[in-house]
Fold this sequence. Notes:
Structural class: alpha/beta
CATH topology of the largest domain: Rossmann fold
Largest sheet: 5 strands, parallel
Distance between the termini: 14 Å
CATH class of the largest domain: Alpha Beta
Bound molecules: phosphoric acid mono(formamide)ester
Helix content: 25-40%
Order of helices and strands: HEHEHEHEHEHEEHEHHEHH
Amino acid sequence: MSIRGKDLFDVDDLEISDVKEIFERAQFFKKHGFQKLTSLKGKSICTLFFESSTRTRISFELAAKRLGADVVNFTASTSSLNKGESFKDTVKTLDAMGIDLYVIRHSEPGSPMMMKKYTNSPVINAGDGIHAHPTQALLDAYTIWEKFGDFKIKIAIIGDILHSRVARSNAKLLKMLGADVTLVGPESFIPEYFENYGVRISHDVEKSISESDAVMGLRVQLERQSGGFFSTLDEYNEFYGINSKRMEIANPIFMHPGPMNRGVEVMEEVSDSDSSVVEEQVTNGVFVRMALLDLILGGVEN
Ligand code: CP
């Protein structure tokens, strides 16, 4: 199988062989460093970010430009959506200008699938509400693969699981690749249906970290909460924060998709320590997204 011409709504759209191909292509691009290539010369890529982003938006844009593609950014606030134009007409209008691939982030779960109803070009989900963030999961898994060489590892994903699209996509992808995944947090942050992903659930942060090779911290997503999950951020930090005392037994690597709330889900003594791979995750994000764009659009090196 190949992902050429395919959409990426979530990691379920990929076979293990697709993931391996993406990783190998990302590794190939990483070996070339940040030099500019021409494999997508003549292709037009449109990014549509209806929700804030630093890492995902800029790394997609850099990835596309480093492969020689033309990139246009759709900005909702200055578009004709403000004059009442529908989402459908917006997509059809962009399509009529010859866009070869779309990258969309939206706060509404299912938006990338809705977009696909109006275009034949591939659509990549760059994060849709609490539903999915497949490219984040791919770059996280790539980083683990680089560090450990395989997925025979134990990973604890700690934090606001309930509101996290990263937790959902990571749990699915890491399970698919063979990792032993535990989701960790207060009971109010992990509904029982998460067991359907085939992962463990734990509310014991010390034990989970002490048994892990990798720990992924997740942001407490205050903007997605209606309150009542815990009393204060200090209280959350006391019981669930990732600190050096909790990390010292097993000394796992520390991962975080960003943005981080320093002093809430993680202390600086961990996020800025030698065990932190947060910046490597960001760097790998560019190469993994280069690989995805190249494979989906069938760059000339295919
Ligand atoms: N990890 C992530 O999606 O970060 P951004 O919101 O900055 O894109």
